[in-house]
Amino acid sequence: xxxxxxxxxxxxxxxxxxxxxxxxxxxxxxxxxxxxxxxxxxxxxxxxxxxxxxxxxxxxxxxxxxxxxxxxxxxxxxxxxxxxxxxxxxxxxxxxxxxxxxxxxxxxxxxxxxxxxxxxxxxxxxxxxxxxxxx
Length: 135
Prior knowledge:
Layout: H1 2-8, E1 13-14, E2 20-21, H2 23-31, E3 35-41, H3 48-54, H4 68-73, E4 84-88, E5 90-91, H5 92-95, E6 116-117, E7 126-132
Parallel strand pairs: 5-6
Antiparallel strand pairs: 1-2, 3-7, 4-7
């Protein structure tokens, strides 16, 4: 996916700091540092594996059950609501191929890598909520 995005931006991405970045440089230096990501599980039931992987002490851990609608409403503030992207994580090489018509599609290619994971993590069935904290 990154290689495809590198080809898409073969002339680089100009920045306000006067530097032209490759897509990978832009992603690492600009995008990653400006995002906060909250990860949620979309499994209908809890699993022992999830508790074992993500908690240090089961006795002091909690599980929250919600919906995507309620999750979305948590980000609303009275003055200026932040832009929140919520989406299902894509797993494996096939799901993470860029759409053929990415420039004409509604895919945000700068966010695309944040919702991609290796096939080995499919068991997580993850939903991510992400906000941009760049000023």
